[in-house]
Amino acid sequence: MFRSLIQQHASLAMRNVCRQSVGLTTAGSSAQGVVSNVRLCQPLAPTSIQVRTMTLQQYLKTPGKPRKPPKHKYEKSPQYKGVITKVIILSPKKPNSGNRKCVRIRLSRSNREVIAFVPGIGHTLQEHQVVLVRNGVIPDVAGIKYVCIRGKHDLKHVEKK
Description:
Blueprint (H helix, E strand, L loop, with lengths): L1 H18 L1 E5 L9 E5 L16 H6 L17 E12 L9 E8 L5 E5 L12 E6 L10 E3 L13
Parallel strand pairs: 5-7
Antiparallel strand pairs: 1-2, 3-4, 3-6, 4-5, 6-7
């Protein structure tokens, strides 16, 4: 079907070229007023456009799209336990203001160091304390992709006033 469409298109293009005629006067015969019509209808070589498809072996051999690794590698666990190495206070991006309390944590299973946000009002975290961390992005602080879980290990619940 595709090949027949290409052949029809080629024959239509050839007809359009043949219909064009150009009136030319030769320099020697201009006094005589001889006008010759030259038709641009020369037989074109048949266009042999081959449509190639992939063989079954080529389809099997070509790899699919490469998969991106997940953003947060949790090694199939929803929370991680870690030891605090540093307590940090960060400032948020442009329209927001205030200080965001964060901690740098060394995860116990993978030995990676990550920065986690401490939610709620007030905390008493120090170095070498143990906290539980879950996945959670804080949109107004750049680079923070983890959140500490209140009420587990050394991070206490928010105190009532």
